[in-house]
Amino acid sequence: MNAQTQADDASTSAPLVIHDTLTGQKQPLELREPGRCGFYCCGPTVYDLSHIGHARAALVPDLLLRFLRHRGIEVTYVRNITDIDDKIIKRANERGEGATALAQRYTDEYHRDLGALNCLEPSVEPRVSQTIGPIIELIQTLERGGLTYAIEGDVYYRVKNFSGYGKLSKTNLEDLKAGARVDVDTRKESPLDFALWKAAKPGEPSWESPWGQGRPGWHIECSAMSSQHLGKTFDIHLGGRDLIFPHHENEIAQSQGAHGEHTYARYWMHNGFVNFAGEKMSKSLGNFFTIREVTALYHPEVIRYFLLGVHYRSAINFDIEVTCPACEAPLSAKEQKNKRCASCGHESTTELLRARVRFLGLEEADDRVAYVYTTLARAREFLDSGAGENKPQADVPAVILGMLRGVERAMHDDLNTAAALAELSAPLSELNRLLDLPGKKRKKHRETIGRFVEDLTPVAQILGVFGRAPTRYLAARRDLKVARMGLDTAKVETLMAARQEARAAKDWARADAVREELLALGVEVQDGPSGSFWTV
User: Fold this and answer.
1) 192, 182 Cβ separation under 8 angstroms
2) Terminal CA-CA length for the chain
3) Span 428-445, mean pLDDT?
4) How far apart are CA 67 and CA 272, in angstroms?
5) Do β-strands 274-276 and 265-271 pair in parallel, antiparallel, or remain unpaired?
6) CA–CA distance from 203 to each of 197, 200, 354 (Å)?
């Protein structure tokens, strides 16, 4: 065993290193129980389709789950569904339907979107509407400790009585009072006090409680659900950076206020924003694209790969290009907002402009994912052919042998997916070089090609990409790209047939002419042992 192999073994057997928001530092993950990890993630408020920001918030716990399992750790992953909330009630009233029905429909849509993005299911997915009893019990515990007060059926948390308030967001009470995002309610003792229970209003879902008919406030649900399924103390709490204050700060106050000196979450992990035109993508700002909108244009795996390309704690820019329907000139952010082209004066509707959006980052990701799958398809075709089975084998080069370990090292360092993807670059380049060798020389590298394919399987399981059948993925990707470009597939197939006839007749000049005609349409032809196929 050489020095590098020993170093690799040591790094991949050591505890996972994560960045803890509470301490502001990277530190080894020390589990409460060796070999077992429990973590909680704040899920969606289900009143609309999920956008790309929600996709990123779901991706981070999915990566944590995958990597912990890869390391042989038993995981309990809890992600809640907020199915009772002011936004849900408002949307249901606007549409003239019940809040329960609306929440269930969008819960189903959320599951559909995450399934498309290859996110694994949580171990438990509690809902607010199914956790009313534990929520009421938790509020009563806080009440007995002098941490609440009731006004006209509403119950508030008395922040001043919890000494540790502000430690997660690293601010003091006076600063928070000056600039906090809090509900305006003059009845409250302090602007920072927040609702634990809300008195029922006409037409709203409600439940019986010691304070009268009502429903839970937003923050209390996560404290109740996490303790119910993970205990008073658990390993990791995840969520978007926007939840640090007030939501996660309030969770700490509720949970530790109720359970005394017990630590709530031992570690906190927060993902950065997805930015659109320089602002955080959000439904409230109206500057968002739903997962469903984008997957209608690009394969879901492309979105996942795009999000993996930036470390989870960093902001990621969702860059787009929009062109004028009249003169094709690219529109600036200001022109898009005003819906008017400065070059030709053409005015457009929002719907027309959204239909002309190009997602520049996704197009780059699309090409990269296709490159990996094309390489994998070539490798499997070679291996399946049985060529070189009895031939002398060349030594497997270090660049191939080190691929899986390199991905593991990157993920070990605070789930650094960008570095993990970078570890694939050199092996892919080397594999394509070997696959391009003449037949006899290529046969000598069968073991190397096989090792790459073998090691890509655990890489795919860790990252959640490159695990599909290559031919099926490439066909689905081609169909989406054809739709985006508005290609006439019947014409393409006719030209492909004409080229095949020319090749069969050994009319190479005609075959090359047809290839050029296809290329002018944006279609590339590839010839292989099993025949010719086209890509966009």
Assistant:
1) yes
2) 46
3) 94
4) 20
5) unpaired
6) 17, 9, 36
Phi, psi of 468 (to 5 degrees): -85, 165
- Closest by CA position to 81, among listed 111, 46, 56: 46
Quick one: which of 379, 377, 423 has its CA closest to 404?
Answer: 423
**C-alpha separations of 438 from 380, 444, 527 in Å:** 17, 11, 15
Residue 181 has pLDDT above 50, yes or no: no
Between CA 418 and CA 348 the distance in angstroms is: 38
Comparing C-alpha atoms, which of 119, 25, 76 is closest to residue 236? Answer: 76
Using alpha carbons, list the distances in angstroms from residue 176 to 76, 159, 171, 193, 252: 34, 11, 7, 11, 16
At 312-343, the pLDDT tens digits run 999 999 888 888 888 989 988 788 878 899 99
Nearest-10 crossing angle of helices 360-384, 470-485: 150
Overall pTM > 0.70: yes
Going by their DSSP bridges, the two strands 36-41 and 234-240 should be labelled as: parallel
CA-wise closest residue to 59 among 367, 311, 370: 311
Gap between the Cα atoms of 417 and 313, Å rounded: 11
Task: Report which secondary-structure segment, H or E, holds 117.
Answer: none
Q: Residues for the chain: how many in total? A: 536
Cβ atoms 312, 270 nearer than 8 A: no
Summarised one tens digit per residue, pLDDT across range 219-274 is 999 999 999 999 999 999 999 999 999 999 999 999 999 998 789 999 999 999 99
Residue 523 is predicted with a pLDDT of: 86
Q: Are 268 and 168 in contact (CB under 8 A)?
A: yes
